[in-house]
Amino acid sequence: AELTGRDKVVAMVGDGINDAPGLAQADLGIAVRGGADVAMDAADVVLMHDDPDMIPETLAVARRVTVTLRQNLFWAFAYNVMAIPLAALGFLNPMVAGVAMALSSLSVVGNALRLKVAAGGRQRRTTVPEQVPPAP
Questions:
Q1: pTM exceeding the 0.70 threshold for the entire prediction
Q2: pLDDT for the residue numbered 68
Q3: Measuring CA to CA, which of 51, 81, 82, 109 is 20 to 30 A from 93?
Q4: What burial class does residue 59 get, using C-beta atoms within 10 Å of its C-beta: 0-12 exposed, 13-18 middle, 19+ buried?
């Protein structure tokens, strides 16, 4: 409680019932999967693996998603600000406007897919135990 309200961002990681109030009060509450349901409900983020080493990567992904979201909103807004008045005044053929809108949507989807490409296979994989040969 004494850390919140200052000019700093407070994050808390927890997984138990006693952590829930702190997770709710922190600027960023991070719960670990497998913990108490009340902790996961109070948290802003729930890690799907019980590995705290995933927290920096989770924050990096959140930053990339925020940047991509802002880019997509900017380009969609820019398209609409330019194209809608031109179409309303009759300066833009409706067919051209439709194709431009479809291309705009494709550019937004393509920009969002860059997040998946940026991950580059860094997704956490579970290891399969070696197979034990059958007993004779």
A1: no
A2: 92
A3: 109
A4: middle
